[in-house]
Amino acid sequence: MGEGFMATSFEKVVGLARKNSIWPLPFATSCCGIEFMATAASHYDIARFGSERMSFSPRQCDLLMVMGTISKKMGPILRQVYLQMAEPRWVMAVGACASSGGVFDTYSVLQGIDQVIPVDVYVPGCPPRPEAIIDGVLKIQELVHNESLRRRQSDQYKELLGSYGIQ
Asked: Which cofactor does it need (predicted)?
């Protein structure tokens, strides 16, 4: 029961605490935002998953939920919001527009937010039903719970951020 036991147990405790206290920042621009409002309302109640505290300050949240169409002019703003978040931070692309540009294959619409920031979970749909958004939150919780405390300092993670031009 040496050093390995304590580190493993500590990681599991931290993962459990993070998993059940995710503070989302809703970045909603269109119809997916309305579906998210239904998800946060009493019928679906996102509070069951420890995510009821919506934060509209990037410095106080750890999950960026991008919902709706993101124009190319809005891309740098989205990136700035992402960079203002403290580590560890996660990103969920909700709906077809945030994931791939949706039906708007035009010069002015970003064809997926993964062109400007890394995405952890994609939620499909146009717009996705509240059940799909809850499934996305559960996937984020699983990712958060199983993430190593050392992952954010790994060369692989730094390389990923470097590919987005983030230091």
From this structure: [4Fe-4S] cluster
To the question of whether residue 32 is assigned a binding role by annotation, the answer is: yes
Chain length of the chain = 167
Q: What's the sign of the alpha-carbon dihedral 116, 122, 126, 130?
A: negative
CA angle 106, 166, 92 (to 5 degrees): 60
Give the C-alpha separation, 5 to 29, whole Å.
46
Which domains are delineated in the chain?
23-163 (3.40.50.12280)
Q: Is 61 annotated as a binding residue?
A: no
pLDDT in tens, 68-125: 999 999 999 999 999 999 889 999 999 999 999 988 889 999 999 999 999 999 999 9
Q: Report the relative pairing of strands 63-67 and 90-94 from DSSP bridges.
A: parallel
Q: What are phi and psi of 32, to 5 degrees?
A: -65, -30
Cα separation, 149 vs 151, in Å, equals 6
DSSP state of 128: P
Residues 45, 81: Cα–Cα separation, whole Å: 26
Please tell me whether 31 is known to bind a ligand: yes
pTM of structure: 0.87
Q: Which helix (H) or strand (E) holds 26?
A: strand 24-28
